[in-house]
Amino acid sequence: MARPKAKELTTRELEIMHVFWDQQSAESPVELTVTQVRDALEAAGRDLAYTTVATLIRILVEKDFLEQTNEVRPYFFRSVRSFDDVSGSMLGDMIQKVFGGSREKLLLRLLDERQLSPRELKAIQEILKEKS
């Protein structure tokens, strides 16, 4: 029996999603071709073959992270899920799997990892004030 398709994003799939998220406007998702995605990755220092990018985009369509928006070549794709939606889901999964659901353990681990800069410390303090 075949395994069900994974719904989590691989590192390469996440790179592709970031291209869409980074280029979209506040009003609506951006529509990009495989070539445009490949070129954006190359500009960011990630040189992948056209066929690799096309395969990753096809997988993301199958996983319902992207959708094809036209029926003629060149095909255009756009993000179906927002950065906030995906990052929140991935973070929630990580907190559950790694920290047993404890946000406190996650925060303590983050704070133990390295010294916070004054800017980071101020940002955290502001967030805590807002949440109190």
From TrEMBL:
Pfam families: Penicillinase_R. GO terms for molecular function: DNA binding. Keywords: DNA-binding, Transcription, Transcription regulation. The keyword Transcription regulation applies. GO terms for biological process: negative regulation of DNA-templated transcription. It comes from the Bacteria. InterPro entries: BlaI_family, WH-like_DNA-bd_sf, WH_DNA-bd_sf. Belongs to the BlaI transcriptional regulatory family. This is Penicillinase repressor. The gene is blaI_4.
